Amino acid sequence: MDLIESYREELQLIRKPWTRVWVSGIVIALAMLPWWAPEHIAYLATIICIYAIGIQGQNLLIGYTGQISFGQAGFLAIGAYTFGHLSRMAIPWPVALLCAGFVASLFGVIVGFPSLRLKGPYLAIATMGFGIAVYQTFANSELLSGGRMGLTIAKLEPFGGLSKVTFNYYFNFIITFIFTILSYNIISSYMGRAFIAIRDNDIAAEVIGVNLTNYKLLSFAISSFYTGIQGALYAQFLGFLEPNMFTFMESITIFVAVIIGGLASVEGSIMGAAFVILVPHAFSSFKEMVPVVFGATILIVLIFEPMGLAGRWLKTRLYLRNWPFR
Amino acid sequence: MDQLLQYTVSGLATGSIYSLVAIGLVVIYRSTRILNFAHGDIATVGTFIAFALLVRQIPFTVSAILAVAGGAILAMVFYFVILVPAQRRDATQLGQIILTLGLGLVLQGAVLYFGGTEPHSFPFPLSEFTLYQLGPMSLSQLSLGTLVISLLVSFLFYLLVQKTKIGLAMRATSENLPAAQTLGIPTRRVLAFSWGLAAGLGVLAGLFLAPALLIDPFFMLEPFLKGFAAAILGGLNSLPGAIVGGLILGVAEALAGGFLSIAFKNTLAFIIIIVVLLVRPEGLLGEEFKERV
Hints:
The structure holds two protein chains of two kinds. By secondary structure, chain A is mostly helical. Chain A is built from 16 helices and two strands.
């Protein structure tokens, strides 16, 4: 919607001074959240932050590169258990976190290989098979899953005199912030444009000079890195892991978040994360009806807003910018 | 050797159920390019309808027919009320897949609400414990019934698609939607019919699975995923492929469960998917992909 005149401008994250003002306003408000919001909101915000990372990653894969994947739960489980086992071996958390991401992205590359031959629904089912196979491997192997009692992970001790909730919030908020900036940079760089080219037409992209093999695998690697990090952070946050946290439903939740948030949009991924966490939470007083309401909300949002929440957001911004015309 | 035969026969019985599920998925995929993630949940709803009727002392045949019809109506309503309006608003293919996911969630929640989480045993006229001896193998009444009914249904389905007018319309619609419209085929009604038919087959599979498993709101998830595997194995756009894929998957599973390990049995289906897709992405009987820039 903007006219871009130079490559430097293309690489800029924010182009308009006003955007800078409100974006920094939102970031500051979020950074101050534990001060102005009650504790359970900060708790929810922490979960949203954790989910937002993985959903951004999956949006890079599904929304930007156009490779449909249903294997998120598998990468989540791999990330979470890698982190869990490493932290039980008393390896410092930054190393364990990175390892979780790298192991997940290694598996991402392996799963990515079918993507070189498969398209659309076929790829979706291949990745779904991977996700379920990983779940069943963890469910059947006591060595990996830590047995019947699950795997307990020592939580990080809060420092600087922060309360547990506040500390958790900041810890995850900062990591999410880093990953959000990272995804914005990925999509505005050569890599991101290669992804988009592959999505729009892979053969044409190859003709133009995008290395299809490398970039498809790279997209899988990056997205599963993000998802692995999400799994690790979630493990750290809960302090407890069991295989049933990584069923096919978990893949569906992440996938729904990507679509509801809006394909090919980083803000959308964050909104989608908020959606899948807040909607079930908002209706948690009618415990039995949560899946019904959740499903119905998905139906309504998608019928009335096929572009997802990010589409609505874009339309609102355009409307406000052009106001009072149109 | 006897053991091998025994496993093969019981595998065929399970496989024939997978075939029914797979046919339902393939019918919808062929005609609308949608992966129907609500297929398992529609089948669950149908089975629960049958269960509710059976508990009220309604004869089995009547409840089964009502359940199949209920599932079919549910799918048609979904098509007309949700999918068509979404398509009018230019929903993407992915968006439509998510719509089926949403429907699945709604149905799952509804079954949870009305049926409860308690597993129930399903009253069924055929018994799992009456065994027939066929030479060296023994076959339970239930497996025999399952095998016969699902092969019969598959055959009837084949006749419907290949020999009737509505089958011709279905094939035309899945071949080329705009052309079928131009030729005066009421494509919406044909597609709705396909949805109903697919859902009915799903419910039938659910009915035959119910006595072997206990029914709870999630009992169809696993067979549904296996049905997906079977459909992929045979080729996602090939109806005979769905049947062959289901049977092969059932036998492979029974053999793996019998000779390797029982824990490995459930993972096998998903490993098969990945391997098949890597070696022959279009499935055993599917058509080759054609690609143009």
